[in-house]
Amino acid sequence: MPSPTHFIKRKAAASLLHSVRTARAIRRPFNTFVTINFWQLNVSPSNAYETFQRLRDAHFQRWSMYRPVGIGEARNGPPTYAWAIEAPRQLAHLHWMLHIAPTQKHNFRVALDRWLMHLLRWEQMPEGVVDVRPAYNPEGLKLYLAKGIDPALGKHWNINPVPSGIVSKRRSGTSRNLGPAEWRHRKALWKARGHTNKNLSN
User: Which of 77, 96, 107, 200 has its CA 20 to 30 A from that of 116?
Assistant: First the structure.
Protein backbone atom coordinates (compact mmCIF):
# COMPACT_ATOMS: atom_id res chain seq x y z
CA MET A 1 0.00 0.00 0.00
CA PRO A 2 1.44 3.41 -0.96
CA SER A 3 2.64 5.44 1.99
CA PRO A 4 1.53 9.03 2.68
CA THR A 5 3.36 11.59 0.56
CA HIS A 6 4.51 15.15 1.17
CA PHE A 7 5.17 16.10 -2.46
CA ILE A 8 4.22 15.44 -6.08
CA LYS A 9 6.93 13.17 -7.49
CA ARG A 10 8.65 13.24 -10.88
CA LYS A 11 6.40 10.92 -12.93
CA ALA A 12 3.16 12.54 -11.82
CA ALA A 13 4.62 16.03 -12.13
CA ALA A 14 5.80 15.37 -15.69
CA SER A 15 2.37 14.27 -16.86
CA LEU A 16 0.74 17.18 -15.04
CA LEU A 17 3.04 19.70 -16.70
CA HIS A 18 2.46 18.20 -20.15
CA SER A 19 -1.29 17.82 -19.68
CA VAL A 20 -2.41 21.21 -21.02
CA ARG A 21 -0.52 20.98 -24.27
CA THR A 22 -1.50 17.34 -24.75
CA ALA A 23 -5.18 18.09 -24.13
CA ARG A 24 -5.04 20.76 -26.84
CA ALA A 25 -3.26 18.37 -29.20
CA ILE A 26 -6.01 15.75 -28.91
CA ARG A 27 -8.63 18.50 -29.34
CA ARG A 28 -10.02 18.22 -25.82
CA PRO A 29 -8.60 21.38 -24.23
CA PHE A 30 -9.21 22.14 -20.58
CA ASN A 31 -12.10 24.57 -20.26
CA THR A 32 -13.35 23.88 -16.74
CA PHE A 33 -11.68 24.23 -13.34
CA VAL A 34 -13.17 22.58 -10.25
CA THR A 35 -12.19 22.93 -6.61
CA ILE A 36 -13.79 20.64 -4.02
CA ASN A 37 -13.19 21.34 -0.34
CA PHE A 38 -13.26 17.78 0.92
CA TRP A 39 -12.58 18.91 4.46
CA GLN A 40 -16.01 20.56 4.58
CA LEU A 41 -17.51 17.14 3.88
CA ASN A 42 -15.53 15.51 6.69
CA VAL A 43 -13.13 13.82 4.27
CA SER A 44 -9.66 13.53 5.78
CA PRO A 45 -6.31 13.67 3.92
CA SER A 46 -6.07 9.91 4.38
CA ASN A 47 -9.38 9.37 2.54
CA ALA A 48 -9.29 12.20 -0.01
CA TYR A 49 -7.81 10.19 -2.88
CA GLU A 50 -10.19 7.27 -2.40
CA THR A 51 -13.13 9.68 -2.36
CA PHE A 52 -11.95 11.35 -5.56
CA GLN A 53 -11.29 7.97 -7.17
CA ARG A 54 -14.89 6.88 -6.52
CA LEU A 55 -16.23 10.23 -7.74
CA ARG A 56 -14.15 10.00 -10.91
CA ASP A 57 -14.57 6.33 -11.79
CA ALA A 58 -18.08 5.51 -10.62
CA HIS A 59 -19.69 8.78 -11.62
CA PHE A 60 -17.80 11.25 -13.80
CA GLN A 61 -16.30 8.79 -16.27
CA ARG A 62 -19.57 6.93 -16.70
CA TRP A 63 -21.43 10.20 -17.13
CA SER A 64 -18.89 11.43 -19.67
CA MET A 65 -19.00 8.30 -21.83
CA TYR A 66 -22.76 7.64 -21.62
CA ARG A 67 -24.42 7.51 -25.04
CA PRO A 68 -28.02 8.75 -24.89
CA VAL A 69 -30.52 6.63 -26.84
CA GLY A 70 -30.70 7.71 -30.47
CA ILE A 71 -27.45 9.71 -30.32
CA GLY A 72 -24.27 8.27 -31.78
CA GLU A 73 -21.79 10.31 -29.74
CA ALA A 74 -20.98 10.06 -26.07
CA ARG A 75 -22.50 12.74 -23.84
CA ASN A 76 -19.16 14.40 -23.09
CA GLY A 77 -16.62 12.18 -24.82
CA PRO A 78 -13.40 10.60 -23.56
CA PRO A 79 -12.70 11.76 -19.98
CA THR A 80 -9.88 14.31 -20.16
CA TYR A 81 -8.53 15.85 -16.98
CA ALA A 82 -5.63 16.64 -14.64
CA TRP A 83 -5.90 16.87 -10.86
CA ALA A 84 -4.08 17.46 -7.60
CA ILE A 85 -5.03 16.90 -3.97
CA GLU A 86 -3.65 19.16 -1.26
CA ALA A 87 -4.05 19.13 2.51
CA PRO A 88 -2.33 22.11 4.15
CA ARG A 89 -3.22 22.25 7.86
CA GLN A 90 -5.02 18.89 7.35
CA LEU A 91 -7.65 20.59 5.13
CA ALA A 92 -7.97 18.21 2.19
CA HIS A 93 -9.17 19.65 -1.10
CA LEU A 94 -9.07 18.80 -4.78
CA HIS A 95 -8.14 20.91 -7.81
CA TRP A 96 -9.38 19.40 -11.07
CA MET A 97 -9.02 20.69 -14.65
CA LEU A 98 -11.33 19.07 -17.21
CA HIS A 99 -12.69 19.25 -20.69
CA ILE A 100 -16.48 19.58 -20.52
CA ALA A 101 -18.51 19.89 -23.71
CA PRO A 102 -20.08 23.37 -23.86
CA THR A 103 -23.57 21.84 -24.07
CA GLN A 104 -22.94 19.85 -20.88
CA LYS A 105 -21.51 22.47 -18.52
CA HIS A 106 -24.74 23.05 -16.60
CA ASN A 107 -25.53 19.34 -16.43
CA PHE A 108 -22.04 18.60 -15.14
CA ARG A 109 -22.32 21.22 -12.40
CA VAL A 110 -25.65 19.88 -11.20
CA ALA A 111 -24.48 16.28 -11.39
CA LEU A 112 -21.30 17.01 -9.42
CA ASP A 113 -23.25 18.01 -6.31
CA ARG A 114 -25.50 14.98 -6.71
CA TRP A 115 -22.53 12.60 -7.01
CA LEU A 116 -20.86 13.97 -3.90
CA MET A 117 -24.05 13.81 -1.84
CA HIS A 118 -24.57 10.21 -2.94
CA LEU A 119 -20.99 9.16 -2.21
CA LEU A 120 -20.78 10.81 1.19
CA ARG A 121 -24.42 10.52 2.22
CA TRP A 122 -25.13 14.20 2.60
CA GLU A 123 -28.73 15.30 2.15
CA GLN A 124 -27.70 18.80 1.11
CA MET A 125 -24.43 20.19 -0.17
CA PRO A 126 -22.98 22.77 2.27
CA GLU A 127 -22.33 26.19 0.79
CA GLY A 128 -18.85 26.78 -0.56
CA VAL A 129 -17.81 23.13 -0.91
CA VAL A 130 -17.71 23.05 -4.72
CA ASP A 131 -16.44 25.80 -7.00
CA VAL A 132 -16.75 25.36 -10.76
CA ARG A 133 -15.50 28.05 -13.10
CA PRO A 134 -14.10 28.44 -16.63
CA ALA A 135 -10.44 27.51 -17.04
CA TYR A 136 -9.34 30.76 -18.67
CA ASN A 137 -5.61 30.11 -18.24
CA PRO A 138 -4.83 26.37 -18.17
CA GLU A 139 -1.08 26.99 -18.48
CA GLY A 140 -1.18 29.01 -15.29
CA LEU A 141 -3.52 26.54 -13.59
CA LYS A 142 -1.19 23.61 -14.25
CA LEU A 143 1.54 25.43 -12.31
CA TYR A 144 -0.95 26.10 -9.53
CA LEU A 145 -1.74 22.38 -9.39
CA ALA A 146 1.96 21.56 -9.47
CA LYS A 147 2.89 23.80 -6.55
CA GLY A 148 3.03 20.75 -4.27
CA ILE A 149 5.99 19.43 -6.25
CA ASP A 150 9.11 17.98 -4.64
CA PRO A 151 11.36 21.03 -3.99
CA ALA A 152 14.29 19.41 -5.83
CA LEU A 153 12.15 19.06 -8.95
CA GLY A 154 10.68 22.52 -8.49
CA LYS A 155 14.12 24.06 -8.67
CA HIS A 156 14.94 22.06 -11.81
CA TRP A 157 11.67 23.02 -13.53
CA ASN A 158 11.55 26.62 -12.31
CA ILE A 159 8.48 26.08 -10.10
CA ASN A 160 8.22 27.59 -6.64
CA PRO A 161 7.03 24.73 -4.39
CA VAL A 162 4.51 25.38 -1.63
CA PRO A 163 4.02 23.02 1.34
CA SER A 164 0.76 21.23 0.55
CA GLY A 165 0.32 18.85 3.44
CA ILE A 166 0.46 15.07 3.72
CA VAL A 167 -1.85 13.03 1.48
CA SER A 168 -2.33 9.27 1.52
CA LYS A 169 -1.83 7.35 -1.72
CA ARG A 170 -1.84 9.44 -4.91
CA ARG A 171 -1.83 13.23 -4.78
CA SER A 172 -1.92 14.12 -8.50
CA GLY A 173 -2.52 12.59 -11.89
CA THR A 174 -4.10 12.87 -15.33
CA SER A 175 -6.58 10.94 -17.42
CA ARG A 176 -5.14 8.06 -19.40
CA ASN A 177 -5.36 9.94 -22.69
CA LEU A 178 -2.93 12.54 -21.28
CA GLY A 179 -0.45 10.05 -19.81
CA PRO A 180 3.15 9.29 -20.81
CA ALA A 181 2.15 7.08 -23.74
CA GLU A 182 0.47 10.12 -25.27
CA TRP A 183 2.76 13.00 -24.37
CA ARG A 184 6.24 11.48 -24.75
CA HIS A 185 6.20 11.16 -28.52
CA ARG A 186 4.58 14.60 -28.80
CA LYS A 187 7.34 16.01 -26.61
CA ALA A 188 10.01 14.55 -28.91
CA LEU A 189 8.37 16.10 -31.97
CA TRP A 190 7.93 19.42 -30.17
CA LYS A 191 11.60 19.56 -29.13
CA ALA A 192 12.69 18.54 -32.62
CA ARG A 193 11.09 21.74 -33.87
CA GLY A 194 13.41 23.72 -31.63
CA HIS A 195 11.00 24.60 -28.82
CA THR A 196 12.16 24.84 -25.22
CA ASN A 197 10.30 25.48 -22.00
CA LYS A 198 11.67 25.10 -18.47
CA ASN A 199 8.31 23.85 -17.22
CA LEU A 200 8.24 21.10 -19.87
CA SER A 201 11.87 19.96 -20.15
CA ASN A 202 11.41 16.87 -18.04
Answer: 77
